[in-house]
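Components:
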Amino acid sequence: MSFDYHAVSGDYQYRALQSGHPVQRFWHGGKLMMIDRLVRPYVLPGAHLLEIGCGSGNLLLQAIVPGVVPVALDLSRQALTFVHGRLSDLQARASYPQDFLLIQGIGEALPFCNASFDLILLSEVIEHLAAPQDVIREAARLLRPGGRLLVTTPNYRSLWPLLEWLVDRLNMAPKMAGEQHISRFDADSLRLLLEMAGLRIDYFGSIYLLAPFLALVSQSLAYRDLESELKSPPAAGMILAAVASKT
Amino acid sequence: MLSKDLLEILRCPACVREKEGLLVLERDCWLVCQDCGRKYPIVDEIPVMLIDEGDKWIHTAADKLPVPPPER
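Structure:
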């Protein structure tokens, strides 16, 4: 039986970021640093930015700068309603984004015309899909020439399977192994997936080798470690991160 | 209120890879595909762009679509 994503609270990732266990808080907070380092340099005013599988919108909101047009897509209505509230609050507080759009949809059949986005975020989505190549092919279709796609996914050639087992055993998150996570990647298979879609890989590495464990000691130590992991990615970090562009 | 500019990039998810999949806004809360006739509701400002949702309304005439659309 497939996992019921409608059973996951719309603010799940937001709550994990704000008030989770120290490792969980860092796990979600570190992604914001990743957005700052790997995505923000390419976010220019006027850019159309899509997050596929936005969850509670942590990454999308981190990537927004004035003048950007954000589009959030998710299957979960609860998540979209939560993100609608966050974007409306941002609009009221900072007077941007001027326009935004929320779409209930799935990544394998994206409801947009070709070449409609400058940046696409696809963070921890492909492992949830039976045919992950479909969403990558769709993302490539939607990118404008020169547009970039950020993909992250757990690295099964790392300590990730052990952590996944532990988190499942302790019920710290909605069950992952075999339920949410049905496709498994390592560096070679992720590279292949991107290259098969005709994308050029601009950045490729893994993060979260030691940083999440350091969060048990100190959040600032963990963030310092992540900063260096992002600059010189280790081979066996628990999360694979790639930025690929359409030529 | 949904932005007209942003609605312009929306297409029918069933048709866009093969055809145009252009959508026309009907009664301010439905998007109707000009190729296949699937109809996608906009519920609380969020378009429901799921092919199975569009299928449900494919044989309903545009002037018979419920306003507001039912919650899923």
